[in-house]
Hints:
Blueprint: H1 7-10, H2 19-32, E1 35-42, E2 46-53, E3 56-64, H3 68-79, E4 90-96, E5 104-113, E6 116-124, H4 133-136, H5 140-150, E7 155-160, H6 167-178, E8 185-189, E9 200-203, H7 212-220, E10 226-229, H8 235-246, E11 250-255, H9 260-269, H10 274-280, E12 281-293, E13 298-300, H11 305-313, E14 324-326, E15 337-348, H12 351-358, H13 363-372, H14 378-387, H15 393-399
Helix pairs in contact: 2-3, 7-8, 8-10, 9-13, 10-12, 12-13
Amino acid sequence: MIREAKVKKILGEGQTLSIISLVDAIIEEAQNLRASDIHIDPLDKEVKVRFRIDGVLQDAHSLPKEIHSEVITRIKVLAGLRTDEHQTAQDGRFRIILNETDPIDVRVSIAPAYYGENAVLRLLSDRSENFSLETLGFSPEDRVKVAQAASNPYGMILATGPTGSGKTTTLYTILKALHTKEVSIITIEDPIEYSIEGINQMQVNARTGLTFANGLRAILRQDPDIIMVGEIRDRETAGLAINTALTGHLVLSTLHTNDAATTLPRMLDLGLEPYLITATVNLVIGQRLVRKICEKCKIKHELTKAEQKSLAAANIPLDKTAVHKGRGCDDCNNSGYRGRIGIYEIIAVDDRIREAMLQRCSSGEIRKVAKEGGMKTMIEDGFRKVSEGLTTVEEVLRVIHE
């Protein structure tokens, strides 16, 4: 049902469908295709299975509607969820080992929809193990800014961007660089996406009252040097994180904002005083993820008129002879892209930024001050990667709407 090569595995001797094997085969195929998420969506007459590969959803399979409830029940059993509850959202997780390879942690979200329950499975594997600031896509000057901020014994580093923009991976990479036997590092996350040996990681649990705020209070009694808070969602967590940074700890966290310059006014919206923000925040990283051109089928590309118009509107000088694209091959599933890389803008909080914050300047004014101080915007960093043959003009414009 998934691929001809897997029919014997999925169908038993009596040619009856094995739901257990079917679910395993879907997860295995998603893992082999480097998918980050599996969407199982019921429709009127079928069940659509889609994979999110390199940040883009792609149709994978169509299953018979008759087996929809059995597939959802199997996923619920694996995740330890209630199989008799069909009218409320449920979250869980499980670990699966396929073909004696590394175990795959799967985070499950099930919610009732018009044609029945849908399921989204997030595949969490230790793919961050070999990441460095360089492989993530940071330019040499940005790597220096991050290293300087991370070397401070106290203060705050914030990674910002929408959901799925690689913020947590950036913070993990910084943590691994800071991880030595002389320091104690504790994190509180929801969920724990990668397991890092030697670092104490706490999982948020709403049922037991372990929120980001309560967990942060508990962490402070654990004698940490460096703390990572998975996400600042509310005023209480923001206030605790700021006070923790003031009391001699290095705090890393994420915030949902559109760009780096919006981050500081956003903290004002959370009820924090400007002098507290300027006293603690050392660095703000705004980021997005773009797909990388497949190296196996990379070819020179002639810019279209629409792309030239977009570049002219953004006032971006670009060497047209350095532009590439992927033709599409078996290695990249005929998409022309394989893997992803970050595009960034980094604000190192200096005296000029602090003065603008104390004046309660808007994000536009802070952005202007930061650019005068040498900040490269995300779109500029994106087109630098286009000129280096790493990604395409179309891809940069897809993730940044300017």
